[in-house]
Amino acid sequence: MRALVLLLLPLLARAQDVDSFVRENAGRFTPKAQRIQFALIGDQQYTPAQEKLFENVIDSMNGEPLQFVVHDGDIIGSNKPCDDATFARRVKTFGRSAHPFVLTPGDNDWTDCGKATMGGFDPLERLAKVRALFFPALGKRSLPLVSQGRLKEFAPYVENQMWARGQVLFATLHVVGTNNNAARRAEYEPRNAANLFWVKAAFAIARNRGFRGVMVIMQANPHFEEKKRKAGDGFGDTIAALERETRAFPGEVVLVHGDSHYFRIDKPLVSAHDNAEGSRVENFTRVETFGPPDVHWIRATADPVNPMVFQFDQRIVAANIRAR
Fold it and tell me: How far apart, in whole angstroms, are the C-alpha atoms of residue 251 and residue 283?
């Protein structure tokens, strides 16, 4: 059963700036002294065999009292057809989730679909299909989500969503691998502008309402290790925005992404401002979800009594452990 979004935002007849967005919507996000747990997954179902293994992940998550599940994109293998039949299977599988199931798109899900090995589709047509099928959310329970698509000038970007649970403000961001599709400027530039607005809006709401944590979820690994961004880089604006907002935020910030299939939790963000020593931004943490060939999930906890707010536990699915 498709989870129902609460249509919390009016359609706006004028250009929306962040300050007016906050004034009109801050009251819809209320921090609560509540300990919550939720699931983080991504980069799964790349092969028929992994489709079967992913059913075990769904069963494992269904067995725990989670608030919701977030999938950080890439629901198809990079050389598998992104056709309607595949999308229909994903809708069916995600719909089995006992918890609200939120997705943010990956590059395999649309930008790469023009490759012959993926069916030679029009990527923008595939993106439209993804938006129609997977948003606002799936799963057997609903989740009150605010979609950026409710803002008139950002109407296409239904996939950028915001919600609150416990002491955390959550936001999904449509930033994908393959350099964030930056080579196709006509598509990239308005989406990049929408993403930058959404980052600023999320942190503005979090500061206004006194949330202790912000979690941003996107698909792409933005390659924090690259010290000098090349011309045409598709991630520099996003990293700069995350740094700027994190430095101005008094709480903890987590970026969740997939893309490079390497489970890790680290501190990759080095401040670009007055930082000759190259010290890390201490209140910024990166979590990368499991990816093929590892078919598992992460249970995240946000606890108001934890000074660091967030805790992350590997959930290794016993049925998916490779025979040794």
Answer: 7
The answer to whether 21 touches 160, Cβ cutoff 8 Å, is no
In a domain, 11, yes or no: no
* pLDDT digit string, tens, across residues 74-103: 999 989 999 999 999 999 999 999 999 999
The span from the CA of 271 to the CA of 220, in Å, is: 20
Do residues 219 and 180 touch, judged by C-beta distance below 8 A?
Answer: no
CATH classification of the domain holding 66: 3.60.21.10
Give the structural domain span for 58: 18-316
Residue-wise pLDDT for 66-75, tens only, equals 999 999 999 9
What is the predicted pLDDT for the residue at 200?
A: 97
